[in-house]
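Workshop exercise sheet. Pairs work together: one partner reads the sequence aloud, the other fills in the structure field after running the prediction. Swap roles for the next sheet.
Pair: D.N. / O.F.
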Amino acid sequence: MIYFSLNNKNHRVNFREALFNGLAPDRGLYFPKSIIPLRKSFISNLSNYDKIEISLEVISQFIGNQIDEESLKKIIEHSIDFEFPLKKIEENISVLELFHGPSMAFKDVGARFTSRCLSHFIRRGYDRKVTVLVATSGDTGAAVASGFHRVEGVDVFILYPKNKISNIQERQISTFSDNIFPVEVDGTFDDCQKMVKDALIDKDLTSNFNFTTANSINISRWIPQTLYYFFAYCQLPPDIKKSSFSIPSGNYGNLFSAIVSKELGLPVENIISSNNINNPVERYFKSGIYTPMHSKETLSNAMDVGDPSNFKRVNKIFDLDLDKMRETIHAFSFTDYQTRDAIKDVLKNFKYICDPHGAIGYLGAKKYVGNNLGSHCIFLETAHYYKFFDEIKNVIGNEFNVPSQLASILNKEKNSVTVKDYIDFKDYINSNL
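Structure field:
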């Protein structure tokens, strides 16, 4: 598979080069030269295959000949070594739970896949030690810290906005040490993301560090996330031939993966971009003009993104044709007030607890089905509600049992540093040479 920069089609690399570069030298995102639809016989018989067989079939074309099949199989086995259950909520709405991994968030799959792919090449001498830079609005950092901890040949700097993620999320990031370096940024997620992008092309730094990123700008993050949609379809009742997906959207890596799944031949009817008040995409759909916005703090903090990087990939897959995009994607946004009400309503009516992001996914599915835009919709529950203990408790007033994956971190001490700006961050990286 060849990937090219969205800023320059003539800049072309293979999977390994795109993985290690993270971002093209011209700051462009890497995009696959082609997406080849899967065999129709495979799609129609998904339920006859196990998760590993499905995974190999779905993602092999994006790896090409860069990783041998046996090694890729081991990487996949490690990346998806937990359940992805689909549960019916109401008549035409189901939920796909993506929080059964070690950090209890959907990003575990991408983080584990990325770390093992990097380690695969480093162990074989293709590349020297790598330094991973990650900006996070919450769950990415937790998944990366868990997925990369003590991975040989890799150091990881995780940047997160100070006082703008949940207490549990911060502990999942800031209590790691060894090869994990947690960094609090005095700003927003967008500030964190800009620092990462600036560092990736900073010649003073790149002369000393072999940088890449584990954010969803890296191809290794969105590639395995395509599997969620195939795993969901395996669990649908036989009478449901086609479904839509409501995706709580922040940086749009997961939504892009859903579109790729549709391009691969999965019978996806529509895709719902479900946002909080940080909604530049919904505004674009209404006005025809895309305008980045300053991110605002909300209850669903992992979606507090005012200029989603992966929307550039979404635009590309539709050839920059807004009308064509509108035929597949519906964009809705919801306030914190609506999110709190949804958490209460789902618990009261269906005995199910959503986290704030899943609640927005549910609202998007409810609006989509209620407006008769489609017949069945699956929303993604992207993180376990306990990760937002304070926020959920304030909404529904219940006490919760601590999941085993989170119990061990509650009494650990923070191990983070604080930086004010890019110069501070650059000095901190250099101090760890």
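Discussion prompt: The chain has a mean pLDDT of 92. What would you look at next?
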